[in-house]
Design a protein that fits this description.
alpha+beta; seven-stranded antiparallel beta sheet
Amino acid sequence: MENEYIRRHHKHEPTPNQCSSALVKHIKAPLPIVWSLVRRFDEPQKYKPFVSRCIVQGEVGLAIGTVREVNVKSGLPATTSTERLELLDDHQHILGIKILGGDHRLNNYSSIITLHPEVVDGRPGTLVIESFVVDVPDGNTGDETCYFVEALISCNLTSLANVSERMAVQDPTPLPLPLVNHLLC
């Protein structure tokens, strides 16, 4: 099923000077909890460990085209990133972003993250898939670039799982069976 979701929603067409990949994470928390974190383009620091602050430019909102300025924590080869919301679909649980600039080497970076309901250990869970495409900087190989970006995304997805699962434990109210069936269909 993962491959079908990737084929359907994660269509990147990298040029010869770009690399692309997709990462998968199974989270033991219901999709509504996970989506409540992912969809907050204006608050990525809620689960992204390398983001210290986010300022939305213009009117605060989650409209396509919204731009945010993200401050990155020390320790990474960047301090800021300017990003635009490209896609936000609350029905299909899809979020897409594009990096417009910043003091980093992630040129022409765009990513798509999708959430899909699944059952994990007999309870509602979430399959998260995040894919990206980015230019390979001069002096680096495609493998090096993909490895670096995959490591960042992997940290973000692990943190997303930890935060979501903590939220699910804090509110262990089981979802009504009709909602569970809706999530799985």
